Amino acid sequence: xxxxxxxxxxxxxxxxxxxxxxxxxxxxxxxxxxxxxxxxxxxxxxxxxxxxxxxxxxxxxxxxxxxxxxxxxxxxxxxxxxxxxxxxxxxxxxxxxxxxxxxxxxxxxxxxxxxxxxxxxxxxxxxxxxxxxxxxxxxxxxxxxxxxxxxxxxxxxxxxxxxxxxxxxxxxxxxxxxxxxxxxxxxxxxxxxxxxxxxxxxxxxxxxxxxxxxxxxxxxxxxxxxxxxxxxxxxxxxxxxxxxxxxxxxxxxxxxxxxxxxxxxxxxxxxxxxxxxxxxxxxxxxxxxxxxxxxxxxxxxxxxxxxxxxxxxxxxxxxxxxxxxxxxxxxxxxxxxxxxxxxxxxxxxxxxxxxxxxxxxxxxxxxxxxxxxxxxxxxxxxxxxxxxxxx
Length: 391
Description:
Blueprint: E1 28-33, E2 63-65, H1 68-75, H2 83-94, E3 100-105, H3 111-121, E4 129-131, H4 138-149, E5 155-159, E6 186-190, E7 193-197, E8 202-206, H5 209-222, E9 239-240, H6 246-252, E10 257-263, E11 266-269, H7 285-301, H8 312-331, H9 340-343, E12 344-347, H10 355-359, E13 366-369
Parallel strand pairs: 1-3, 1-4, 4-5, 5-6, 6-10
Antiparallel strand pairs: 2-3, 7-8, 7-9, 10-11, 12-13
Helix pairs in contact: 1-2, 2-5, 3-4
């Protein structure tokens, strides 16, 4: 405490409680292959040089990429050696993505190779979306999902299997007949997209996960993470590998398969579900990703409370900070209610922190939020009147 000896007015600067800021939700992590043994593969030339070429990123080295030109300088231009990965990253930026981390592996069907890459992603806090474009082995897909479930603040985008015998049979099963696991931290998309191919000057089918990650980022930026990434045009998609009918989608949607469909020339995402329980708390992608954002933001934004005296002043600081943060979330339209009191509550007092809890060195904050859910089914009920409506 300062010591005052002369009468007068003194001004003291008192440290305040730092605000909790919403964390980013659209940085993606991509895992793919660059086959350096492919005929004719070479890295692009450096500007102004006729011989000096960029160096290919090392295996299992996570590289930050903020444009497709940066990707080319680290992983090569469109080539048969990196076709799937290049199309995924190009689709990401073309659909609104701005930041991604890319890791190349030797074998995308190897669980150990993919797990090594995921281990590198675990060191990068900002990654919120993870995809291994074109991975079609259940064990690999499950590894990506497990990686997102463990920190609980990431979300996996999974590519469906390609349809067989001109039907939708088997799109959840790999070549061994194994089905990708159910998870509220993952979404699966079907079918593959038809896009322009600079390698052949023709068109090819590519897995949709890269484009979907970019679409997630676009919706996050324009509407917010609480808006379902659906009923949105897939930029760069010229067609679809399979044209799903409404009746076919009726059998896929409850299983958490998000169908991409064509409407009047537009290719649109027509599903917004996770691979979790269709009747569960986290049926929808937007619900899961919003809670991911809230949880990660609270974890980072309340670190000021660690090792502080566990008493009423600390509890009040926490309540003020969390309430201010959730008020922002509510004003953005992510929580249901016409007032903050209807949308959420924050409790941190003697009821949540009795003596036995404080003796353990813990402070417990109870939070409840009313999350806005997407209007997946818009229903008009129409009846015929016997006479004029004014009677």
